[in-house]
Amino acid sequence: MIGLMNFPALNLTRTTTTASGGSWGGWLR
């Protein structure tokens, strides 16, 4: 999760994944 924070562009994606819910694990992989 920390890796995502390092990229501002992924910040938007992070918000989208959070809305989806369980997409976090799948997105990281």
Folded structure, characterized:
The model has no long low-confidence stretch (mean pLDDT 60). With 29 residues, this protein is mainly alpha-helical. The chain is built from 3 helices and no strands.
What's a concise summary of this model?
With 29 residues, this protein is mainly alpha-helical.
Ordered list of secondary-structure elements with their pairings:
Blueprint: H1 2-6, H2 8-20, H3 23-28
Summary tags:
29 residues; mainly alpha; 83% helix; elongated
> Percent of residues in helical segments?
over 70%
Structural category is mainly alpha
The overall pLDDT, averaged over residues, is: 60
Distance between the termini: 11 Å
Poorly predicted tracts of residues: none
The overall strand count is: 0
Shape by Cα distribution? elongated
Number of helices: 3
Largest sheet: none
- Please state the CA-atom Rg, rounded to the nearest Å: 8 Å
**% residues in beta strands:** under 5%
Helix-strand sequence: HHH
